[in-house]
Design brief:
With about 475 residues, the chain is α/β, with parallel strands linked by helices. It has eleven helices and ten strands. The protein has a six-stranded antiparallel β-barrel. Strands 8-7-9-10 form a four-stranded parallel beta sheet, sandwiched between helices. Helix 4 runs parallel beside helix 5. The protein is elongated and about 200 Å long. It starts with 5 loop residues before the first helix and ends in a 13-residue tail after the last helix.
Length: about 475
């Protein structure tokens, strides 16, 4: 071999060997990388399928943050969503929650919510599409219930107060009757004592005592006869005078019509001088110098018409502010078709700036309009009259201006001996009922004889502007 050729052949051999070695290494590495790539692709496919189970492709494109919301650091989107779900379920059914799947938690909460809605439906509560709407209905029902409870508590307090007042008045009346009973009992004891003394005196059977008693008896008989004769004579004279007066009245009525007994009722006490329709108040031309005070009520009458005989006006007002010569009143009741205008008259049968009227109250009244007679109604009406400056008398006389007449009092059933043994005051109550009826008839007869104006309860309320107020609790 030539000397120059050997080294070149070795170099080519080395190069060939190196190329073959690199080719083998590259081939082996490519096979390894391909195998690893296939594994990674399988893993990626599996992960993609698993991810699609959690998020669909459309949801993946939308973005996890837009579906779940803010995700705390160190926490997954699914874990955050489960936390939000747990908070919502805790808000609905309460906590703490048991460890279970989201499906189980939702089923349990749905079951409890359905049971609750079924229970509310049985209570006639409106069930809406949604728990919050249903809860709003429940809240409305609770508010109505609370209002009803407050109203019932108020009515209960009023009933308790009325019961306490009734018990107090009944106790006072029973104490008065017991005192009268003791007085009558003492009189009975005195009569028994006198009877026993007389009996002892009679039992002595002496001729002198018999003569003395006979003389006293004759003297008493003579006095009694004289009194009876005078009484008969007086009755006859009274009857003759009464007949003469009636005949004279009949003759006079043919010549001159009888005056209206209730003319004083149709007198105006003041006038409307200013009206504020927005505030529902009016101003009057009477004030403190006329004796006006807060709480006084008036009936408003049309200035162009006379005051009607039934006392019904166009409105009712109540004084709440007073100046020297004027006063301000709130409108309690008015008619839309017949409003208050300037110059309208106001009147109150009880109150008067110049004269204090005298009233007599008799009969039974139903002041709260519940269809039952109130046991102390007369006392309450008397108190109202006196509060507003009127005078109240026990009997009709020539000084009486008005008679407020209720229904005729009912007479109690006369108690039997057994009933009196069980309730000793039964006979006293029976006698008191007879006295009340007798007094009622006497007052009516005297009022007609003396031409005293007679008002029933409703007419009386109209004339004092108190018809609307009378139905309210505590009006008297």
């Amino acid at each position: 071999m030539p000397a120059g050729k050997r080294p070149q052949s070795n170099a080519m051999l080395y190069t060939l060997i190196t190329f073959v070695g690199l080719f083998l290494v590259t081939t082996i590495l490519s096979v390894i990388y391909y195998v690893q790539f296939e594994k990674q692709r399988d893993i990626a496919d599996t992960a993609s399928r698993d991810l699609e189970k959690i998020l669909s492709k459309s949801e993946q494109r939308k973005g996890l943050g837009k579906i779940v919301g803010s995700i705390p650091r160190g926490k997954s989107g699914l874990g955050t969503m489960v936390s939000y779900l747990d908070e919502m379920i805790t808000l609905i059914v309460g906590g703490p929650l048991e460890e279970s799947t989201a499906e189980t938690k939702v089923e349990n909460s749905n079951s409890k919510a359905k049971d609750l809605l079924d229970s509310l439906a049985k209570r006639d509560i409106s069930i809406e599409n949604g728990l919050l709407s249903t809860l709003e209905n429940v809240e409305a029902v609770l508010e109505d219930t609370e209002k009803s409870e407050i109203t019932l508590i108020g009515e209960l307090d009023e009933l308790r107060q009325e019961f306490d007042e009734t018990r107090k008045v009944t106790f006072e009346k029973e104490q008065t009757l017991l005192a009268e009973k003791e007085k009558y009992q003492q009189q009975v004891e005195d009569i028994k004592s006198q009877y026993n003394a007389l009996k002892n005196l009679m039992e002595q059977k002496t001729e002198q005592q018999v003569q003395i008693l006979a003389a006293q008896l004759d003297e008493e008989r003579a006095k009694l006869k004289e009194i009876k004769d005078k009484l008969l004579e007086t009755k006859a004279q009274y009857k003759m005078a009464d007949n003469r007066m009636k005949r004279a009245q009949r003759k006079l009525s043919k010549l001159v019509p009888a005056p209206d007994r209730a003319v004083a009722s149709f007198k105006s006490d003041g006038k409307i001088i200013l009206i504020n329709d927005m505030a529902k108040i009016v101003h009057l031309n009477i004030g403190s110098e006329d004796g006006v005070y807060r709480g006084l009520t008036f009936t408003v009458y049309d200035s162009s018409l006379p005051i009607p005989k039934d006392g019904k006006g166009k409105a009712e007002i109540e004084i709440f502010n007073i100046d020297k010569n004027t006063s301000t009143a709130r409108i309690i009741h008015s008619k839309i078709k017949n409003p208050i205008i300037l110059g309208d008259n106001v009147a109150n049968l009880i109150w008067g700036s110049e004269k204090s009227n005298e009233f007599v109250v008799a009969g039974a009244f139903d002041i709260d309009n519940n269809g039952k007679i109130d046991y102390n109604a007369s006392e309450k009406i008397r108190a109202l009259i006196e509060k507003w400056g009127g005078r109240v008398a026990d009997s009709v006389s020539v000084e009486t201006d008005f008679l407020v007449l209720g229904k005729a009092p009912k007479v109690n059933k006369k108690p039997s001996f057994e009933e009196m043994e069980m309730y000793p005051l039964a006979m006293d109550k029976y006698e008191q009922s007879i006295k009340r009826l007798t007094h009622y008839k006497e007052m009516l007869e005297l009022a007609n004889r003396l031409s005293v104006p007679i008002f029933n309860y409703e007419k009386f309320l109209y004339f004092i502007g108190y018809k609307t107020q009378s139905g309210k609790a505590g009006a008297f």
